[in-house]
Design goal:
Blueprint: E1 8-9, H1 11-23, E2 28-34, E3 37-44, H2 50-56, E4 68-77, E5 85-92, H3 99-115, E6 125-127, H4 134-138, H5 145-150, H6 152-170, E7 178-179, E8 188-189, H7 190-201, E9 204-212, E10 217-225, H8 234-237, E11 244-254, E12 257-267, H9 275-293, E13 304-308, H10 316-323, H11 329-332
Parallel strand pairs: 1-3, 5-6, 12-13
Antiparallel strand pairs: 2-3, 2-4, 4-5, 7-8, 9-10, 9-11, 11-12
Length: 359
């Protein structure tokens, strides 16, 4: 069975899950994507309650740097048929896993849901760390059928956001671990792509990018959560001897309105960096900016672009002046130019010219 994502389901996986649904003798099924196929990787049989089994055995299925799916069978049944248990689909996507893998697993989840239709399946769980399972273990995860229906729109909105994220990642795939941007010789790393996407989503308020000259890549240097970033720290973040590309959100008040301006800074220190480094940063700047703003790629609307070489230019007063230039009354008046006078002392006395009518 093939799909538009070119991911197929292994026959052994289909057979195993269908039997697990009928017999109810499996607690959890771990599924991986290997060689463009969804395959059975591991399973756990019931030893106690679903919660005990989850804590003792199922949690061990979730490994660092390895996204996966786990179908977890609960002890409750959807109807009078004892074999028709409630199931939960867990999508495990650890923070330290490869962005390409995250993208692949996120876009393939629907294949599992469409292929293995459980008559009683609760909401999916998306987890990036072990702490994300706490609501499941404590029972906070479980909701009534009405609450699930009320939350359906939110789930759809989340799926739409994930689809947009996957599309942005997949539009310019280059070598493994990088993405190419037309016009830039240096590819951009997965981490840098993910940083731009997280900035767009609003989870981070500051992102710093650098050029790895030895590997010839645009890489993510550092980030700061949106809730923690303070624009007053900008000056101290700038390296003294290396250029940088900076994206940050500047929340501020102007004429009674609360604004959030997105500013791109091309930082070039006045001294300390080589001519070659400056040239490479200058060459990559405009194509990178174009990609960040392009609606087909990242679609971030930048309020102001700055090129600076002095950290004083990052002070709030200067940022406000750049975003909201003070009105100048004289600027609106037309400029009149006085006619130049002749050289002083060189002009002769006025001459009286008589006409023929003068007597």
């Amino acid at each position: 069975m093939s799909h538009s994502s070119n991911i197929q389901l292994d026959d052994n996986l289909i057979d195993f899950i269908n039997k697990a649904k009928q017999k109810g003798n499996i607690r959890a099924v771990k599924i991986l994507i290997k060689d463009e196929k969804l395959v059975l990787d591991d399973h756990v049989e019931p030893q106690g309650s679903w919660k005990d089994d989850f804590i003792q055995s199922v949690k061990k299925m979730f490994l660092d740097k390895e996204p996966c799916y786990v179908l977890l069978r609960l002890d409750s049944a959807g109807n009078s048929d004892d074999a028709n248990y409630d199931w939960i689909l867990i999508c495990w996507s650890p923070d330290d896993s490869h962005v390409r893998q995250k993208m692949l697993y996120a876009s393939t989840k629907s294949i599992l849901k469409l292929t293995f239709t459980f008559s009683s399946t609760l909401n999916d769980i998306f987890a990036t760390c072990q702490d994300d399972f706490n609501p499941l273990i404590s029972g906070d995860y479980f909701k009534t059928a009405k609450q699930i229906s009320d939350d359906l729109l939110t789930v759809q909105e989340q799926d739409l956001r994930n689809v947009k994220r996957e599309e942005a990642l997949s539009r310019s795939v280059n070598a493994p671990g990088t993405h190419s941007i037309p016009g830039i010789e240096f590819p951009i790393t997965d981490e840098a792509v993910d940083g731009i996407l997280r900035f767009k989503e609003g989870s981070i308020g500051f992102a710093e990018f650098s050029l790895d000259l030895s590997k010839e890549m645009i890489q993510l240097e550092s980030t700061e959560d949106a809730s923690k970033f303070d624009v007053k720290t900008l000056g101290s973040r700038m390296p003294t001897k290396n250029p940088r590309y900076i994206l940050f959100v500047y929340p501020h008040q102007y004429e009674g309105a609360s604004l959030k301006s997105i500013i791109f800074v091309y930082w070039v220190p006045g001294s300390g960096c080589s001519i070659k480094e400056k040239m490479l940063y200058s060459t990559c700047k405009l194509p990178l900016l174009a990609a960040i703003q392009d609606a087909r790629k990242f679609g971030i609307e930048i309020t102001k672009k700055l090129e600076i070489d002095d950290i004083d230019e990052l002070k709030e007063d200067n940022l406000l002046n750049e975003l909201h230039p003070p009105n100048s009354a004289s600027a609106s008046k037309p400029v009149s130019f006085a006619k130049p006078q002749g050289p002083a002392g060189k002009r002769g006395a006025k001459r009286l010219i008589r006409t023929g009518n003068d007597a």
